[in-house]
Amino acid sequence: MARDSSKTDNKKLKGETPKKAPKLPVGADSPTSFAEVQGAGGETHQSTNDPALTLTSAQGIPVADGQNSLKAGPRGPTLLEDFQLREKIFHFDHERIPERVVHARGYGAHGVFELTDSLADICRADVLGTVGQQTEVFVRFSTVAGSKGSPDLARDVRGFAVKFYTKEGNWDLVGNNIPVFFIQDAIKFPDLVHSVKEEPDRAFPQAQSAHDNFWDFTSLSPEAWHMVMWQMSDRTIPRSFRTMEGFGVHTFRLLDAEGNSTFVKFHWKPRQGLQSVLWNEAVKVNGADPDFHRRDLWEAIESGDFPVWDLGVQLFREEDAAKLPFDHLDATKLIPEELVPVRIIGAMTLNRNVDNFFANTEQVAFCTANVPPGVDFSDDPLLHGRNFSYLDTQLKRLGGPNFTHIPVNAPRCPVMHFQQDGHMAMTNPKGRANYEPNSWGPEGGPRENPARGTTSFAAPLDGPKQRIRSETFADHYSQARQFYLSQQPIEQKHIGDALTFELSKVVRVDIRARAVSHLLNIDADLAATVANGLGMALPEAAVAARPTIDLPTSDKLSILANGPKDFKGRKMGLLLTDGSSADLFTALTGSLDAEGAVWEVIAPKIGGVTLDDGTAVAAKQKIDGGPSVLYDAVAVLPSAAGAALLAKDAAAKDFCADAFGHCKFIGFSAEAAALFDAARIPEMDAGFVQLAKAKDAKAFVATCRALRFWDRERKVDLDAA
Ligand code: HDD
């Protein structure tokens, strides 16, 4: 379906500014709001049905004047008696809850998971058993290091947390968009996070790993370097949440009814294809639209262009695990898809935006320990630490043990237990028995049920208590090298650029050198490129616990090898002026609509433009509000007079120069030449497509299916010279 977001917004705008007060009760368009917030009884909710829609206090007391506090005389002091003022300010003062200690900035959506391939032969979990069964989900995407208000396009790992509301309780798959992690043991997690967050004395830099502390820590932690390679790749500057993969990271177990175990790793593969932006683009997007990712997801879902991810599993038995070249319990290693193929077993569609951010996205509480019967843990030491940490952090963040009563966290299946009371208890048991077994209810119930209940894999355990890292975790570089060599040349260049950029922000020269010493164990050329970029001599290679071995490369690790096949769901910016060609506009927007793409008009004035046939076209952005970094491709279609005007405008020149510098495909009318000259575009290369006749539009949209015109990058980037 075509999406012209300017139209969507206009419609919304009309809906949001009604001329007359709506007849519906407040909150009626938002089914989760009042009834849920005010409790199961919902009695106080009745006041909202008052046809007069009287404003009330939180106690339901009608308000006569909400604009003025109670004073002794018109200019007199405010009276303590004013309970209305006190209640309003008291509540406001307590609006914030602690932000997440990591993954504070996030964005969520509701959706549905449908199973397409049953795992019933190896797993007793209901959610993985019946083909066609649909399970409600809630997903929260996030960055890791930045605070709640940080920009979306920070270079960072993205969280990819999915809550499945199964018939057997909530299953949380709390993953990232990278299949490996920085550390092997949870005891190092606080140090890792402290090192990447802002430095404690000065409280900056915000949402960046480009500083001394992070590189100090990683350069002292060889195990981090596989993930560092992923982090320095374009995976950490995704174009959209919709164009990211997700990974459960750890090895989990699936258990059948007899308790037999199969190891499993979980993968989310976006049907939208993988896509990222360039670093220079990310820096500018953060200024132009810090909400770039959340806006993108919101708009896609609002317009009905629902993103879909396939759920894949890598399955292997204990005896296969022993033959793998790496320890499947080591979260810094992946299992290449060439060794254990990914079997697609279902699809997740995000189809509903939240109607209240706080209620859903902020209050959602994920925990790796939440698994239904049939899903179990492996002995990954990182996973065991997580199983403690998430529950613990929710107590602090959500204020007490009753956060499962919050609608977004509440299971959708019956909940039967004797836990009681505590802060903000919303669903309270009735009756006399609050223990089990008891003889009050039928058969003293509810009672445990060995047939339905969760069981653990009966792993025989034996071993001395010791603080030790397994020898099988010791090869820190071979998969880092495999990742690097699996990238296409332009992706390798980006990794070199990113490392050079980040280490250039590190002040201490010895930390820079120690970082490069690890690269020497990964790829000598990469190390040389980065050392050259930093203007330093090559150091000695870091001492490696195990020598790096050459592993086969894998296309699955590249973004470009797994990109989108079309321009669907992607966005083109159309720079128009008064007098722009109506024929070209109609042909181009028609082709974009046919492709299922989104387009926005950018114009000198937000009031829009008048085309050469007199048609008035609304603008979505004024030029300085719609820089080309916000678009996947651009069409520059001014009239001759318009081009002459724009040639004097810095924002219009930046629009063209950035589109060129970011290797975007650029459609243009002949009249645009004057603007390109003013923008000092050195060469109209093959990434430029002239739109002379209406039929050129279709060909231009087809050209844009490729992500970028990468041939240009080598010519526009000094680092590559
Ligand atoms: Fe974590 C949040 C993913 C290791 C402790 N983590 C959090 C979120 C995601 C991940 C997606 C955000 C959830 C949300 O949207 O609410 N974390 C991961 C992955 C890891 C990982 C993929 C490695 C494989 N995490 C990890 C370790 C620990 C934590 C080793 C602690 C020992 N993570 C937390 C936390 C957070 C969290 C402090 C902050 C907020 C929250 O849990 O609910 O407990």
TrEMBL record:
CDD domains: GATase1_catalase
This enzyme's EC code(s): 1.11.1.6
The protein's name: Catalase
Residue ranges the record marks as coiled coil: none
Reaction(s) catalysed by this chain's protein: 2 H2O2 = O2 + 2 H2O
Superkingdom, taxonomy of origin: Bacteria
Function: Decomposes hydrogen peroxide into water and oxygen; serves to protect cells from the toxic effects of hydrogen peroxide.
Organism expressing this protein natively: Sphingomonas immobilis
